[in-house]
What does this fold into?
Amino acid sequence: MTLTVVWSVQARNQFLATLTYIAKEDPQSAELVHERVAKSLKLLCDTPNMGVLAPTVGART
It folds into this structure.
């Protein structure tokens, strides 16, 4: 199952602003952050059931 991440306008704007801020001091680091986020999102979309379910806080089992 492959899913798609849908960014809110605010989240996308904040992410781009963060990349711009980082790039002012170190463009290579900004590119690295972008690549790592893209890689993580792809992994999340390709394997949404990866990992272990965490208990819900306050829920009785």
Notes: The two ends are 29 Å apart (CA to CA).
